[in-house]
Fold these 3 entries.
Entry 1:
Amino acid sequence: MRGPIVIAGGGPAGALLATYLGRAGHSVTVYESRPDLRVSEVDAGRSINLALATRGIVPLIDIGVIDRVDEITIPMRGRMVHAVDDPNPVLQPYGSKTHEVIHSVGRTGLNAILLDAAEATGNVELVFGRSIDRVDLETSTIHFADGGSTEFGVILGADGVRIAGTGRHDRRRIVRLDDRPARPRLRGTHPAGRTDRRTPTRPQRPAHLAARRIHAHRPREPGW
């Protein structure tokens, strides 16, 4: 991959990608418009907790942070539905087996763990408080909101739709993780050299966490 490699956005997706690339030996610079959430208060807006299922858990195991993430997650076995005309709530499980659960995790806590993992590779530079205004793909130049600029070899967009100046034609030359329906396959990053793997068995959760559910209130409908 041609360098310098730039990742726009230091959220969970950008930090995870930076970790994989850094572990593969690439020098990466991540630009994040917000301050470093590990050392300052960052407004999370209306963001709710993330729900981790198999697709999100596998890379966390792969990069060796699952134990830290486990400490801040709560398992959810299903949603408890309360019908208006029925006093007895009904549990709708998320899976067909008792061990099939999803795990609720705070976005800020997860993001901090992934930023630590990216820095731990020794190949990732995290630049906070630097907002990208637009990207000139003809000259391979990033223009920042503060008037500065820098060149890049490859830019990877992990900031949603916030990069300005990337029209339909230009988007063909930017890799955007947010547009992909499935997790990208990064070859050569697994310690054993494999590019596919089976999902490891999750350890059993403490009993006091196993009963957690999401509670939803809605009216009962015919045939529902």
Note: Residues 167-173, 177-212, 214-224 have pLDDT under 50 and may be disordered.
Entry 2:
Amino acid sequence: MSRPAMAFEANPVLFGHGEKPGLLAVELTDDRHIRLYHQDGWEDVPFSPYLWLISPDLLQGTKVPHRLEELSGTSAYRVLAWFDSWADLNAARRHISKVVKAQGLKGETNLFLNDPVQQYLTLSGQTLFKGLRFGDLRRLQLHLEIDCGEADFSHDQPHRASLALGQDVFELTPETEREELERVAQRIREVDPDVIEGHDLFRQHLPYLQERARRLGMKLAWGRDGRPAT
């Protein structure tokens, strides 16, 4: 007797085994906690980073607190090492590098996911935007036009620029730049978007605005929890 067909979006291999719906973003907060953002706020959860080892001997002699878990299966990585914090994990990796060099070990001795967000999502099985339809998201579009064409991050003087945020337009000039950036942050807090969209947002527009804010002694406090944009 065949099993009933599984709904496509319910496949844990494709969409993760976590059951937390409506997850919008994930960030490392204080080295031991992960912050989970959703539409009605955020929550901090404990986080224990990890790496895979071919042998527990790689951590022999270290003073870094850790615990080891033996794994079944045929993979070369037979041990999972857990740590109390991201800093402890990196200290352990430095210890492993010394052991590998001292013993002349060849090949891959450990497997490390170098992004704490990826570590959390892999371990927890949580998936961003799970259970949300496209129309459920509060979306805000951002576009920046700079008069010099390409953003000049080395110049102390501001350029004239027009910033479109949804249907609102803010004119950034040497005289109005600080005031307009404050108005942009206020508007983002009012809309409280789940997603900010834009073309070339991470390569040019956001870095340019961050640089201008830095030179003005400001922070782009755009985050739902008041954290600056990164």
Note: The helical segments are 12-15, 86-103, 116-124, 177-191, 201-215.
Entry 3:
Amino acid sequence: MMTHPSVTIGIPVYNGEACLDKMLASICAQSFQDMEILVSDNASTDSTPEIIARWAAKDKRIRVHRQPENVGARNNFIWLLENAAAPWMKFAAHDDMLTTGYVEALYGLAKAHPEARLIAASVQLIKPDGARYKNTPFPVEINEARGFVRTKLLLKEVRSGWFYGLFRRGALKEAWYAAERFKYVWGQDLLVLLPFLLSGAVVGTPDATFYQLDTGVSAARYKPKALPEQAHMYFSYLYACFRALWLSPLTLAQKTALVPQMIIYTGYNCWKLRRLVLFTLRAPFMPIKRFFAPPRKNKIIKNYSQSLRLSVEWLFTPPTLTAMATIWKAQA
């Protein structure tokens, strides 16, 4: 085990036997050597512990912790964040892979840009059958842009795969705990990224690639299904975005100019506002349809009614307006 590594690779895993072996092979084959590989097994019930033990016997940089019980995905990430030994940190999902020079390229940029707090790379999405699609190279014009132009570019070009870039660990902890106010797992990765985007402290390279397996499991497991919960999640996410905007180092004029962008950012990464509005507008008419709908649709009618009630509550006490008022008051 390394005592003072430059980089920590944090791997949270739960029942990852299907892909874990390939991912650990990808990490251990990195050309960059000055790193620790910290694995937190969230009380897996499959062969994950055996796979980890086998790799730990091969590579002494691997440090393993097994949670005594399942602590949830979020707390497993937090354990890694709190127990990492290096000043720079990268998370690695159990089903993703990296190009061989990934960590070396990102750490080189980190040393060349001491002002940066996040180093990102290109993102290549992969289907469960192994087919590649939607390759997104890191836009090099971001590195050349300055000030507010850079911030707008970052908000436009950000990808969820940047969450698996290389972070200055202190900044990552600060952003993570700020995003903890948002109580949903779905979408939290892009909330963690938001302070980095707003501060402009992001550089990247198209010469390293993060291969992200798109299985749809996260959406199925963590994305709310009922309309009332979707509405609550939307406005909670929007409030978190406005709060991050308020706390950013931007000027009042720049913050005001980015208000529409925060709504777009929420719609892109959480739920489309027009969808929630459409269902809300339709909700008052659903009781009329009750007399014509078969019994199996009563549950749908109830969900629409709940959505209307919740949406009205939010519209009359919107956290978005509260956040905006706070911004103006703080700048006055």
Note: The longest strand covers residues 202-213.
